[in-house]
């Protein structure tokens, strides 16, 4: 559904798809930009939405006032202005995907020149794709809606010959565990999932990531044996669970895989963190992979988008497949502009701070006797087990939820019936966020002792 709105000088992108205006948080942020708010107020069918930006999932129509969608009601109490925008996620440790566009990012989106990307005419997308390809040392890139899309397009593009075939990956890999079985569905491929985590925990291997030896040991050769599914692709992930795969190990894997004529695809959703942690240029990682997927919403703070990077002929094929899968889009330069802003303003300086926050949390957890499961913690993600202090993740989450303040957003962490918990740092966390989270844990420990 496309909607016509009064023109704002230089803002063609406000004639945009409902995705920007049907979600009240974005509408709320746009409404804070004076030019947008003053112009939108002139449209009778937008004014009700602007006056009730706290209504959840506002549904905008050109023929009727704003209304709630699917029966979702407005909150009983409006969110105070000082707890909106980035302040709303200042104590949210669930993921680095919870960040919200800042006013400056939204302004960049609104001002972005746009065109029809299916025709190759969106200048902001063209600029982003060229920039990311150059950063990663490749010829071309394809802007996609999500990391799952860019990963699955990359894998499908590599696996052109059809089954039988297999993909070798870490058993924890996102492409295997968290992409809805896409490799099987899209490619008809078997996944050879190496139990890296279990082997490392049992002391059966030194490295906590996939290695060249795994390729030697597990890749199925194309030797004419009719019983096997020859391995046609190796998928690596960097970072994986916050841990960095060293460049030297990636190089060794690349050599072993290529000697067997097997390409290497990297899920580099958080490769930005690996580059910061090691001080290595992104292109050095990129040149050791035949294709790479990088994400702009995990860590970098853009609301939408990932990019698939590789040789020009590879990306041409992937673009064709993206269209077949329904991933072609039109004036998506408004989203590419957010990614460009993130590359300019979040990477690299803001990410280094998230590593320091993670290190600070680890120090406190060790002091309290909590087990660190991904030790050493390389980047912005901490895996811990609070059962070592007699708690479950639910105990910690409950204590955090009880810390209610008028001047700060609530603390959000994932709970669970076991002691295992993941805590993720992002660049919009408040300076006292870790201290507040640790204080909640201390209260939970004290309550358990008193009980």
Task: Explain this structure.
With 451 residues, the chain is of the alpha/beta class. It has three domains: 9-76, no CATH class; 112-345, Type I PLP-dependent aspartate aminotransferase-like (Major domain) (Aspartate Aminotransferase, domain 2); 349-450, Aspartate Aminotransferase, domain 1 (Alpha-Beta Complex). The protein is built from 19 helices and twelve strands. The strands form three sheets. It has a seven-stranded mixed beta sheet, with helices on both faces. It has a three-stranded antiparallel beta sheet with strand order 10-11-12, with helices on one face. The longest helix is centred in the last third of the chain and has 20 residues, at 349-368. It is globular. Residues 92-386 form the Aromatic amino acid beta-eliminating lyase/threonine aldolase domain. GO terms for molecular function: L-allo-threonine aldolase activity.
Number of strands: 12
CATH superfamily of the largest domain: Type I PLP-dependent aspartate aminotransferase-like (Major domain)
Q: Quickly name the level 1 CATH class of the largest domain.
A: Alpha Beta
Q: What structural class do helix, strand and pairing data support?
A: alpha/beta
Integer-rounded radius of gyration: 23 Å
| pLDDT averaged over residues | 86
Count the domains. Answer: 3
Strand portion, in percent?
A: 5-15%
Biggest β-sheet description: 7 strands, mixed
- Which consecutive residue ranges, at least 5 long each, have pLDDT under 50? 1-27, 37-76
Strand order of the largest sheet: 3-9-8-7-6-4-5
CATH fold label of the largest domain:
Aspartate Aminotransferase, domain 2
Annotation field: number of helices: 19
- Give the CA-based shape: globular
Could you tell me how far the N terminus lies from the C terminus, measured between alpha carbons in angstroms? 57 Å
Helical proportion, percent range: 25-40%
Q: Can you name the CATH architecture of the largest domain?
A: 3-Layer(aba) Sandwich
Cofactor: pyridoxal 5'-phosphate
GO molecular function, one term: L-allo-threonine aldolase activity
Protein name: Aromatic amino acid beta-eliminating lyase/threonine aldolase domain-containing protein
Family: Belongs to the threonine aldolase family.
């Amino acid at each position: 559904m496309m909607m016509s709105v009064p023109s704002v000088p230089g803002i063609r992108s406000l004639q945009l798809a409902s995705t920007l205006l049907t979600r009240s948080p974005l509408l709320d942020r746009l409404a804070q930009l004076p030019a947008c708010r003053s112009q939108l107020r002139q449209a009778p069918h937008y004014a009700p939405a602007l006056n009730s930006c706290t209504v959840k999932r506002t549904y905008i129509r050109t023929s009727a006032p704003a209304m709630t969608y699917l029966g979702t009601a407005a909150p009983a109490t409006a969110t105070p202005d000082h707890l909106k925008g980035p302040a709303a996620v200042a104590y949210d440790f669930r993921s680095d995907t919870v960040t919200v566009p800042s006013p400056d990012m939204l302004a960049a989106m609104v001002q972005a020149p746009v065109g029809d990307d299916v025709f190759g005419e969106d200048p902001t997308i063209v600029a982003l794709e060229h920039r990311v390809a150059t950063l990663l040392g490749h010829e071309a890139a394809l802007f996609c809606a999500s990391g799952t899309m860019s990963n699955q397009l990359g894998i499908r593009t590599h696996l052109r010959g059809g089954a039988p075939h297999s993909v070798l990956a870490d058993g924890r890999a996102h492409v295997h565990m968290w992409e809805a079985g896409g490799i099987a569905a899209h490619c008809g491929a078997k996944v050879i999932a190496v139990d890296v985590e279990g082997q490392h925990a049992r002391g059966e291997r030194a490295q906590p990531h996939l290695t060249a030896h795994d390729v030697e040991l597990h890749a199925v050769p194309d030797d004419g044996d009719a019983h096997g599914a020859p391995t046609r692709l190796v998928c690596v992930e960097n970072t994986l669970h916050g841990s960095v795969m060293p460049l030297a190990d990636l190089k060794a894997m690349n050599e072993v895989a290529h000697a067997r004529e097997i390409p290497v695809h990297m899920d580099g959703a958080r490769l930005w963190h690996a580059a910061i942690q090691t001080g290595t240029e992104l292109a050095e990682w990129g040149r050791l992979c035949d294709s790479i997927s990088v994400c702009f919403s995990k860590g970098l703070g853009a609301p939408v988008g990932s990019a698939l990077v590789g040789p020009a002929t590879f990306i041409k094929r992937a673009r064709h497949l993206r269209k077949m899968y329904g991933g072609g889009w039109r004036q998506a330069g408004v989203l590419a502009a957010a990614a460009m802003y993130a590359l300019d303003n979040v990477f690299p300086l803001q990410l280094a701070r998230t590593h320091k926050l993670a290190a600070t949390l680890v120090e406190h957890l060790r002091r309290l006797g909590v087990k660190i499961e991904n030790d050493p913690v390389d980047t912005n993600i901490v895996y811990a087990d609070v059962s070592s202090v007699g708690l479950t993740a639910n105990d910690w989450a409950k204590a955090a939820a009880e810390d209610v303040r008028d001047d700060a957003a609530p603390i959000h962490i994932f709970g669970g019936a076991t002691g295992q918990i993941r805590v993720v740092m992002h660049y919009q966390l408040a300076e006292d966020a870790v201290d507040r989270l640790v204080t909640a844990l201390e209260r939970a420990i004290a309550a358990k002792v008193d009980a």
